[in-house]
Amino acid sequence: MLRNTFFAQNPAADSRTITFRDIEETVDAENNTQTVADTSELPLDLVRAGSKLIARAPIVGANIHDISVTVTTNQLTVHKNSWQEAGDEKEHFYVQECQWGSLSRTIDLPKSIDPDRTRASLHDGVLTIVMPLAATSHTKIIPVKDDAD
């Protein structure tokens, strides 16, 4: 992430000549902090295992009451809502990469799934969503009738 942040701020930078000093210079001089961009989107992995799709997302520090999972036959949405206690006013971040607020992610699924048989669980900070593939296709051929009849 830090590399992506550096290159976004320094488009002329060459990855073969990057030095730690170059990265340090991207740190905000006024606040002397470095934050990672795009942290409001929840990262996740999606794999196919036999006749099911499995999504895994790291959701550290949340409990099951902070998480909502919504599925349709072709889309998955995961939302995590949490908060962070206010820190000591004397604290000053040098690096702030952790996302403590709300995270959300919606992805289109590559295969149709059965929402009624989908299950989600949270174990050791990893949300796992098991989505069985739909047994039948929802495609239907509609016959065209002649209006003259």
TrEMBL record:
> PROSITE patterns under this entry?
SHSP (PS01031)
Alphabetized UniProt keyword annotations = Stress response
Q: Which residues form the SHSP domain?
A: 35-147
Q: Which family does it belong to?
A: Belongs to the small heat shock protein (HSP20) family.
What is this protein identified as?
Heat shock protein Hsp20
Q: Which organism is it from?
A: candidate division Kazan bacterium GW2011_GWB1_52_7
Which lineage do the record's taxonomy fields give for this organism? Bacteria, Bacteria division Kazan-3B-28
